[in-house]
Amino acid sequence: MRLIEAVVPSRKFDEVKAAVEEFKPTHFRFSSTEENETCVLRAFFVEDGAQALLDRLQEICDGDKDDWRILVLPVEATAPQPEDNENDVGSDEEIKRKRKLALREEIFNDVSEGAELHSDFYVLTLASTIVAAIGLNADNVAAVIGAMVIAPLLGPILAVSFAAALGDFKLLARAGRNAVTGLALGMFVAALMGLWLDINFESTELMSRTVAGLDSVALGLAAGAAAALSIVTGVSAALVGVMVAVALLPPAAAAGLFLGAGEIDLFWRAMLLLSVNIVCIMLSAQGVYFYKGVRPRTWLEKKKAGNATKINLVILIAMLAALVAIIVFSPAGTMPDVPGSGD
């Protein structure tokens, strides 16, 4: 359930009223300001017409840059309970599915937060890297899981896929920069720790990050789809499970530890697992966004986004094929020999 509140110029009243009558909200009301220069629409939606009305209102007001504003507010409860809308078309399951979808603007707001570089991002990345590196080396499962949850690296990866789906190259650049910065910072800190830590090659948690198999590909694809679906449906709490299922920081921290310790072969193995996770998350997230109909609003933007999506999919599929080939035709899917074990 959502409440759309739109403040628009009074001269647009007839167009706005026609749009409201077309998309039939559950309840709506118009009011005007004292000066009569603007009118205020409050439209309450239970069904899926909110996105269509929101798009139409933006089309109507696009030429007026400063004197209109649209707010989308979540509705926790209403009394009396709204009756089923006669205009809902489709099976009960389809209607329920549509009602659970977040609006494009809501998704954009949630996802774009992961594309911002700020002090909290650096602090969380630094703290989670230290926790992950110590946990991996000490074979401490609880510490590793804690690092997975607090690491802010999944958001930028999902933002990259979302930006590609919308053809928003500005968001794409910001999200990509954020993802690269976070991963680079995490690996750098872990590499510094690897210079003075005695690497525990008997640690199952650490050495398991050097193994990438076809099961890693399947896990990454499934977790990426779950992450994108949780965002599209507005169930962000499910992201915690995804963070644990396909964590990005532990293999990055493991790669940094091995690099700092001079174990180059183990470093590349950990980098392979990290690459598999990133590519699989982005690819499956892109597929979910496409399947769920995440599209730009205007025709020109849709055309631009279509090209961006195709290019992105081709690149990701090619990268995944290359990674799978490395996994199949190399010993990357088996546990490596522990350094010094043959002495």
Tags for this entry?
Alpha-Beta Plaits; 8% strand; alpha+beta; elongated
Question: What is this structure, in a nutshell?
Answer:
The chain has 343 residues and is an alpha+beta fold.
Describe the structure in your own words.
The protein is an alpha+beta fold and 343 residues long. The chain has two domains: 2-75 and 84-90, Alpha-Beta Plaits; 112-331, no CATH class. Helices cover 62% and strands 8% of the residues. It contains 14 helices and four strands. It has helices at 13-23, 49-61, 92-100, 104-112, 119-137, 141-150, 154-166, 169-196, 204-207, 214-232, 239-245, 249-261, 264-291, 299-328; strands spanning 2-9, 27-32, 38-45, 69-74. A four-stranded antiparallel beta sheet has the order 2-3-1-4, with helices on one face. The longest helix has 30 residues, at 299-328. The radius of gyration is 24 Å and the shape is elongated. It starts with a strand and ends in a 15-residue tail after the last helix. 39% of the residues are buried. The mean pLDDT is 82.
Total DSSP E strands: 4
Helix content: 55-70%
Calculate the terminal CA-CA distance, rounded to whole Å. 67 Å
Strand arrangement within the widest β-sheet reads 2-3-1-4
Radius of gyration: 24 Å
Number of helices: 14
Quickly count the domains.
2
The major β-sheet equals:
4 strands, antiparallel
Give the integer mean of the pLDDT values.
82
Structural class call reads: alpha+beta
List unreliable stretches of 5+ residues: none
